[in-house]
Amino acid sequence: MKASQPVRGLYAITPDRADTGALISEVRQALEGGARLIQYRNKSADEALRLRQARRLVALCSEYEALLIINDSVALAKKSGAHGVHLGRDDVAIHAAREQLGAAKIIGASGYTSIERARAAESQGADYVAFGSFFASTVKPDASRAPLALLSDAKARIAIPIVAIGGITLDNAPVLIEAGADGLAVISALFGAPDIHQAARQFVGMFKASSCRI
């Protein structure tokens, strides 16, 4: 898969899991449910474990023709053979990441609540931008809240795909898609669901229904 492939639909972000077997099982359930974008995010593991887990996830995603994006670390994305990296405000610059990863890899950037930051990321070569937090999040409880109107404003001013993140559930997801989100980054409402496979199917189904209305 190339960086030019559209970023759309359910964007599943992994929870911290020290148990690699459990992590692989959970991600497989999400993939079986239709997820085709996975972001590996583990803030608590050491470097060796993160590399082992990332490589396992690359192999797993290849079985489903899915993309694996690494959170924050260009070095881990390169070592693991992942499809790309997602960069926040404290990470390396987009142009530096591109130099290290090459033109075929996906580079995403956090726009947080700023259109200007997102437009700058686009001009620097980002393949998609993420906005949020749109709702209260247990993962980042202190994150600044983004207004729903930010999505429609971004759609009018940014050409690359737009991902919404932060406290997204099956109940509030439809308003984000309606407002213009191309993708929904979900952690707890997916990997914390009683049935990960079914939750993934429901999130994926929302985008299929949206496409039918266009």
What does this structure look like?
This protein has helices at 20-32, 47-63, 74-80, 94-101, 115-123, 149-157, 173-179, 188-191, 196-213, and strands at 9-13, 37-40, 67-71, 84-87, 106-112, 128-132, 162-165, 183-186. It has an 8-stranded parallel beta barrel, surrounded by 7 helices. The protein is globular. The chain has a domain at 9-108 and 165-213: Aldolase class I (TIM Barrel, Alpha-Beta Barrel), CATH 3.20.20. 43% of the residues lie in helices and 18% in strands. Helix 1 packs parallel to helix 9, helix 2 (47-63) crosses helix 3 and helix 7 packs parallel to helix 9. It is an alpha/beta fold and 214 residues long. It has 9 helices and 8 strands.
Return the average pLDDT rounded to an integer: 94
Structural class: alpha/beta
Portion of residues in beta strands equals 15-25%
- For CATH, the homologous superfamily of the domain at 9-108 and 165-213 is named as Aldolase class I
Kindly state the percentage of residues in helix: 40-55%
CATH second-level architecture of the domain at 9-108 and 165-213: Alpha-Beta Barrel
Question: Number of helical segments?
Answer: 9
Span from first to last CA? 26 Å
Q: Which stretches are low in confidence, meaning pLDDT under 50 for 5 or more residues running?
A: none
* Spatial strand arrangement across the major sheet: 1-2-3-4-5-6-7-8
Q: Name the shape in a single word.
A: globular
